[in-house]
TrEMBL record:
Keywords: Kinase, Transferase. GO terms for molecular function: dephospho-CoA kinase activity. It is an enzyme of class 2 (transferase). Its EC number is 2.7.1.24. It holds the Pfam family GrpB. Gene3D superfamilies: Beta Polymerase, domain 2. This is Dephospho-CoA kinase. SUPFAM superfamilies: Nucleotidyltransferase.
Length: 188
């Protein structure tokens, strides 16, 4: 239930900080789940048993929710620090290791340029995997919060050139939804 933050002194960028890019939130695309299924099958085939879990996360996983046109995937591996056990196979598929955040559950981020994919790598039983799944499922089942989040996403994207700024701008709405979700689950 805790909101985790990365160490602000950590230098997570593997290839240097990315260039600014306009953030665009677009209407829901029913092809997003189809695209995810194709991508997940490729990841599972490339990694075999090393892929403990592969899940469609983020806004593209919520029918009817506007989103940045980027498929977010959570990948669970036994130990994210053992990059040699999964990164080369993912690089062979065209993914690039972009981010390494030891202070945030040993998170690794790999990206695919086309189609646009953020592949988040965590260990099994990581609280972020559970939080992401709960949030996705909550938005699928609660239209009022889905609509509230859609409004926050559109407002946050207005004129924004950095994803981190976009995330910060919608954070209060996101945390309010998390609070309702955790309260409904009996966690708080």
């Amino acid at each position: 239930m805790r909101h985790y933050e990365s160490d602000p002194d950590e230098m997570p960028w593997v290839r240097g900080k990315p260039a600014p890019e306009q953030v665009h939130v677009v209407p829901y695309d029913p092809d997003w789940p189809v695209r995810y299924e194709r991508l997940a099958a490729q990841v599972r085939q490339a990694l075999g048993a090393a892929a403990l879990d592969v899940e469609h996360m983020g806004s593209t996983a919520v029918p009817g929710l506007p989103a940045k046109p980027v498929i977010d995937i959570d990948l669970a591996v036994a130990d994210p620090t053992r990059e040699d056990e999964y990164v080369p196979a993912l690089e062979a598929l065209g993914y690039a290791l972009i981010l390494r955040e030891p202070s945030w559950h040993q998170h690794r981020l790999l990206q695919l340029a086309s189609p646009r994919v953020n592949l988040h790598v965590f260990g099994p039983d990581c609280p972020e995997n559970i939080r992401h799944r709960m949030f996705r499922d909550w938005l699928r089942a609660h239209g009022a919060d889905r609509d509230l989040y859609a409004q926050a996403k559109h407002a946050a994207a207005d004129g924004v050139m950095q994803v981190m700024e976009y995330n910060k701008r919608k954070e209060s709405v996101l945390r309010g939804i998390y609070e309702r979700m955790f309260r409904a689950a009996g966690f708080i």
